[in-house]
TrEMBL record:
<dbReference type="InterPro" id="IPR000160">
    <property type="entry name" value="GGDEF_dom"/>
</dbReference>
<dbReference type="InterPro" id="IPR035919">
    <property type="entry name" value="EAL_sf"/>
</dbReference>
<dbReference type="InterPro" id="IPR050706">
    <property type="entry name" value="Cyclic-di-GMP_PDE-like"/>
</dbReference>
<keyword id="KW-1133">Transmembrane helix</keyword>
<feature type="transmembrane region" description="Helical">
    <location>
        <begin position="7"/>
        <end position="24"/>
    </location>
</feature>
<dbReference type="InterPro" id="IPR029787">
    <property type="entry name" value="Nucleotide_cyclase"/>
</dbReference>
<dbReference type="Pfam" id="PF00563">
    <property type="entry name" value="EAL"/>
</dbReference>
<keyword id="KW-0812">Transmembrane</keyword>
<dbReference type="InterPro" id="IPR043128">
    <property type="entry name" value="Rev_trsase/Diguanyl_cyclase"/>
</dbReference>
<feature type="transmembrane region" description="Helical">
    <location>
        <begin position="47"/>
        <end position="66"/>
    </location>
</feature>
<feature type="domain" description="GGDEF">
    <location>
        <begin position="103"/>
        <end position="236"/>
    </location>
</feature>
<keyword id="KW-0472">Membrane</keyword>
<feature type="domain" description="EAL">
    <location>
        <begin position="245"/>
        <end position="499"/>
    </location>
</feature>
<dbReference type="Pfam" id="PF00990">
    <property type="entry name" value="GGDEF"/>
</dbReference>
<dbReference type="InterPro" id="IPR001633">
    <property type="entry name" value="EAL_dom"/>
</dbReference>
<protein>
    <submittedName>
        <fullName>Bifunctional diguanylate cyclase/phosphodiesterase</fullName>
    </submittedName>
</protein>
């Protein structure tokens, strides 16, 4: 029963009982008092008027109260969007119409990548304000026939009736991702977050609301596993992939606790390839049954489930110990680079963690370089900046990895004490054939020279790439053309052979 109908019933019951009570009670009272029938009728008439007026007021008050209660039960209090329960009910109604008229319908689940960083670094109030801005963008971007809900936390749902994939859905997703990426918070002015989207289509991916929402969730999980700012349309294989990731996560926890991870080292060279300028330390996982698990599979998994700090600590401590044990650090290797994540800079204990990891160094900390991707820096710029400044004062160098792939590289260089930029291998790969990549690399090199920054080109695999980079003034190379990642014992042999060749040439 609707709030209007319920309020009408309440008012009607009150009116009937009131009128009956006045009619009989007035006659009884005035008969005892010996009053005339005229007086009795007059008082009864006035009583009727009071009851009718009161019933009308009661109707409006009850209607407003019931409507508010219903809205509270149907809508999310923070964003005023539908809640999950009402979204499911509305979706089932829309599905009945779509089924009857043989229409296509799309369900989208939208999740904000890295949202918890706002709550951690700016507080819950800032997080609530951000979610309200996201809700406003969702409302503004969708036409009236679309209904939207907030499920929980930073997850939203959208139902697109009469959707024609991909003509209606893809443009909406791109628009949402672009607009959400522009949201700026006063407390974290340099923070820009992306969103991931999962899509399920009726009737292909499910006949009922529960199935569509579940499959959109699986598509969302798959999108997030590929990195931030992605979207995926449901595929039946995603359920099996989700199960595989769950098993992989369980095995990864075990591998970390049992120290089953290992390290490899990829040398970096000056342009003549005659001297090693540094090594990048990379983590590897040899699974007992699966074999070698690629880092792009387990590193994102570790970041999503709070394991990346343990991996970073292991890599830094083990890398320093192995290089010192084989007498490579300081003597043959002037710089060792470690990849770090935005999560490594969460909380007040982050700086203490890094200092503890570097405590075994017997000499100058300037041999240590932390490689931070721009996207990771922007997720938690204030936290990164605080820790980096302390470590920089102790001599630690900072490199901006995957340079050129973000949207505010110059701002990141301005705010952090960056000493080196690494040209992303995606630009190097086709540098001799793609004029746009070539122009971008030349621009990066010119800018780095003006700012007195060291430049390392990643992914150098051909002599043509190396020749072009040399001609444009790149200082250092890293890639398969010169050396593949190798265990520390192989690195010892590699350096010995390199030194022997240099002696023979001299």
């Amino acid at each position: 029963m609707s709030p209007r109908q319920t309020a009408g019933v309440i008012a009607a019951i009150y009116l009937v009982l009131g009128l009956v009570w006045i009619r009989f009670s007035d006659q009884f009272v005035f008969s005892l008092a010996g009053a005339s029938d005229y007086i009795t009728e007059l008082q009864t008439f006035k009583g009727f008027g009071y009851v009718i007026v009161t019933a009308v007021l009661l109707y409006f008050l009850a209607y407003k109260a019931l409507q508010r209660e219903r809205n509270i039960s149907q809508r999310d209090e923070l964003t005023k969007l539908l809640n999950r329960h009402m979204f499911g009910q509305e979706l089932n109604t829309e599905l009945s119409y779509a089924r009857e008229h043989e229409l296509v319908l799309a369900v989208l689940l939208v999740n904000i990548d890295g949202f918890k960083q706002i709550n951690v670094h700016a507080g819950l109030a800032a997080g609530d304000k951000y979610l309200q801005e996201v809700a406003a963008i969702l409302r503004d971007s969708c036409h009236q026939q679309v209904f939207i809900a907030r499920f929980n936390g930073d997850e939203f749902a959208i139902a697109l009736p009469e959707a024609l994939w991909p003509h209606a859905v893809e443009p909406l997703i791109h628009n949402l991702q672009q607009r959400i990426a522009t949201i700026q918070l006063a407390a974290l002015p340099d923070l820009r977050l992306s969103c991931s989207v999962g899509v399920a289509l009726f009737p292909r991916d499910g006949e009922h609301s529960d199935a569509l929402i579940d499959h959109a969730g699986k598509a969302l999980d798959e999108a997030k596993s590929r990195g931030p700012g992605r979207y995926k349309v449901y595929d039946p294989s995603y359920g099996e992939l989700a199960n595989q990731r769950s098993l992989l996560l369980y095995d990864l926890r075990h591998a970390i606790s049992q120290r089953q991870l290992s390290l490899v080292y990829q040398p970096q060279f000056c342009t003549d390839a005659q001297a090693i300028t540094g090594v990048e330390v990379l983590v590897r996982w040899h699974h007992p049954q699966r074999g070698l698990v690629p880092p792009d599979q387990f590193i994102p998994l570790a970041e999503q489930h709070g394991l990346i700090c343990q991996i970073t600590d292991f890599v830094m401590q083990t890398g320093i110990r192995e290089l010192l044990e084989h007498q490579l650090l300081y003597k043959h290797i002037p710089r060792v680079s470690f990849n770090v994540s935005a999560t490594d800079f969460n909380g007040s204990g982050s700086c203490d963690r890094f200092i503890k990891n570097l405590a075994e160094l017997p000499g100058d900390w300037s041999v240590i370089e932390l490689e931070l991707t721009e996207s990771a820096a922007l997720i938690n710029l204030e936290g990164v900046k605080r820790v980096i400044e302390v470590l920089h004062d102790k001599g630690v160098q900072v490199s901006l990895d995957d340079f050129g792939t973000g949207y505010s590289s110059l701002n990141t260089l301005r705010l952090l004490p960056i000493k080196e930029v690494k040209i992303d291998q995606s630009f190097v790969q086709d540098i001799t054939n793609n004029s746009q990549d070539a122009k971008l690399v030349r621009t990066i090199l010119a800018m780095a020279k003006a700012l007195h920054l060291r430049v390392v080109a990643e992914g150098v695999e051909t002599h043509a790439q190396a020749t072009y980079l040399k001609r444009e003034g790149c200082e250092e190379f890293q890639g398969y053309l010169y050396a593949r990642p190798m265990p520390v014992k192989n690195l010892v042999t590699f350096i010995e052979n390199l030194n022997q060749r240099q002696r023979m040439q001299s």
